[in-house]
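re: ur question from yesterday

yeah so i grabbed the chain u mentioned. its 331 aa long if i counted rite. heres the sequnce exactly as i have it in my notes:
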Amino acid sequence: MSPASWGKLGSATYNRSDLAAQYYDEILFEGKTFGDLLARNGPRLTINATEIALGAQFTFEPAQFALICSDYASYPVSRAVTASSAVPMLFSSVILRNYAGTCPFVYPPWAKAANASVDKTSRAYNLVQQMDKYADREEMPYIHLYDGGLTDNLGVRPFLNRLTLSGGSYQLAKDIGVGDVQRMLVIVVNAQSEMSTQFKQTDLDLTLGQAVEATSSIPLNSYSFDSLTLLRNTFDGLASDLIEKRCEDWAETRESTAGCDDFKVYLVEVDFDQLTDKKQSRMLKHLPTSFSLSIDEVDSLRAVGRQILTDSPAFQAFLRSTDKQAPPPTN
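ran it thru and got these C-alpha cells back, copy pasting raw so excuse formatting
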C-alpha cells in the first residue's frame, strides 16, 4: 500500500509478488540463488508451490527445472519463497517461462515404465501425465505459481512422490547415498490455523471475508488430513520393503548380510491438537498468518513446538534407539 510502490505496480510487467520477492531479498535473502545454496553443501531444501493451471504441486528442485529446460542454479530463493506463499487474491501469481523442448531432456526410466503401465490409476502414472503437460511448450508456454498450501500444506508430498518414482524405499535410500541407513526420523509440523466460525451463532449470511476463509480452509485442511493418512499408510510398508530389498542386494554384492535388517523408522507429528491445555491450543490455532507477531506469541510458538516434540513417544523412542540421552517429557 506504500505510495513508493505505486509506480512499480503500475507496470504491466511488475506485480505484487515481484514486490514481495524484492522485499524478501532486502530483509532476508540478499539476492542469493539456489546455486548459492548448493555451493554450501548443506541440507537438501525443497520449496513447493502450486501450478494453478494443472492444479498440481510444483517443487523447486533440479529435476523440475530440467523438465522445463530452465536454470535451477540461477533462480532466486526469494522468488521461490514468494511463490510458495502467494495466497490467491492477496498476491499475484509468480510466472516462469517454459522452455521445454529446447534442451536434451530425456525421460527417466521410471517415467517410461509408468507411462507404459496398464494401471492408469497409479500415482506414478499420474505424475508422468503432469510431466507430459509441462513438456508441451506450445500448449503451456508459461507456468503460473501460487501458494504451495493449495496442494500440500504439510510439505510431505515431495517425499511420497520420490518414494513412488524411485521404485521403493531402498532404491530411494541408495539414490540419495544412504543405502546403509539404520534409523529414519520424519518430523511433520502441522501449523495450520483454525478459521473463526462465529457466524454459526447468527442467522445472518456470511460476509465475503468469512466465505473466502471457509471455502479455502475446508479443502486445505481435508487435503492435509489425507496427506497424513497416506504418509502413515506408506510408512507401514516402508521398513519391511527397505529391509527385504537391502538384504537381497547385500546377498548378491557383499560377503555378509549382517546388519541388513537393522532399520527402523519413526514418524513424529507436531500439531497444536496434542496440547493438553485446550485453551492454549485454541489460542495458538487462531494466530493469524501474518508478517508480524508479538514477541510473546513468537516465544509461545517456539516453546510449544519444543514441548510437543519432546513429549512425543516416537521421538523419545528414536533417541533411545540411537543411544542418545532422551530429554524427559515435559508432562
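noticed a couple things. Residues 1-151 form one domain. also The longest strand covers residues 183-190.
anyway ttyl
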